[in-house]
Amino acid sequence: MPIASSPRQPLAGPRGAPRPRAASPAPRVRRDRRQLLGAWGERIAARWLRARGWTVVASRFRSGHRDLDLVVRRGTLVAFVEVKTRRDGRFGDPTEAVHWRKRRELVRSARVWIDRFGQPGDAYRFDVVGVLIGLDVPRRDGGRPERAVGRCGPVSGGAEGRPGDGESGVRVRVRHVPDAFQVPVGA
Predict the structure, then answer these.
(1) Whole-angstrom distance, CA of residue 55 vs CA of residue 187
(2) Most CB within 10 Å of its CB: which of 5, 24, 150, 158?
(3) How many helices (H) does the chain have, and how many strands (E)?
(4) Which CATH number characterizes residue 135's domain?
């Protein structure tokens, strides 16, 4: 026997009262925090690269569901930069987190960027920048970090609750791996 369609009504709880809606799942909150941390790391990496003579040409260039964190230029050299940000070093160096699938996606996005904005005579490469943010940033071999350790003042953004707002004096370590991987011929 067919069921007559009726306006959707909330499922009834005990004694006919509407059932309370479930709270949003925890992974969504974590994902948002990771995105904020990643955006903060990208701003730190962009500032770090600018201080070393690079010009930021694009930030978060999107191609479908893929993106390039930073596209930077120095003369005729264009680098597609993947930024990996971590709060601590418990899971290893962030620069080691770019696996083969991510590399494949970066190459695809870079090809789209080159088709749209590339100039004759440009040379291209893929860099990885690892950013460790936190008060207990580990140092390799107990000595000085590989590239830079500095203090990061408040990041602009105000009341949006971005990581780092009001956290002056947070230790930051930036590690730049130029030409981090090669593109296979025919890929």
Answers:
(1) 28
(2) 150
(3) 2, 6
(4) 3.40.1350.10
Percent helix, strand and coil across the chain, each rounded to 5?
A: 30, 30, 40
Q: Is 1 helix (H, G, I), strand (E, B) or coil?
A: coil
Does residue 107 lie within any of the structural domains?
yes
Tell how far CA 33 is from the center of its chain. Answer: 11
30-67 confidence digits (pLDDT tens)? 568 888 899 999 999 999 999 999 999 999 999 888 89
At 13, the amino acid letter reads G
- At 111, list the tokens: 């090809």
Read off the tokens for 135: 């008060």
Report which of 139, 51, 50 is spatially closest to residue 59, judged by C-alpha positions: 50
Return the amino acid letter for 172: V
Is the residue at 16 inside a domain?
no
3-state secondary structure of 168: coil
pTM of the full predicted structure? 0.67
